[in-house]
Amino acid sequence: MIIQLKDATIFQKKIPVLSAVSLDIYQGEFVYLIGRTGTGKSSLLKTLYGDLKLTQGEGKIAGFDLKKLKEKDIPFLRRKLGIVFQDFQLLTDRTVRENLLFVLKATGWNDKNKMEERIQEVLDKVTLGTKGYKMPHELSGGEQQRVAIARALLNDPVVILADEPTGNLDPDTSYEIMNLLFEISHSGRAVLMATHNYSIIDKFPSRIIKCEQGRIMDTAIPA
Q: How far apart are CA 120 and CA 192, in angstroms?
């Protein structure tokens, strides 16, 4: 099991947004996180990647105990996770390659040859193998999100947490990104993706967790 929450309460600025959260996600699973704006989707993801402290209930992700997680442990936790945001969050003053290099250096890599090798591997994985020299503004939105996914894959994470990764993309590009994320889950990683886009869920059916009225409801894969 890669993610486990048991009777957890998720807080945002000391206000509980989700209560009695119990959840198990396994290796290789693709899970959607849905719900209206303000129902706690992003807060749940932030708790999982250590941005919000878990103070009530139990929680584990990628071998880390979220209740006992200390500030100094967060960088180590995030090496096991890949995080993808709606707005890409690329460094605009650096090339694609330099964006990826920055993350490798920040997470403790120091062998130049291995770093270059890894950058090429993840860019090839997202079909941007020849775009490392480009600046982010020279790429389309879909290409920028592919760079963000490449960045998330750098440290070979066991979990990808994606917060509205298709939110700024047109339908065709969204489907390309979804194909890529499903491919990643089929390689044995768990993917937990928050989305408002129900047409994507129709096209790519999978398990759904819904945030509603301060609770979560877990459903099976739609027929």
A: 25
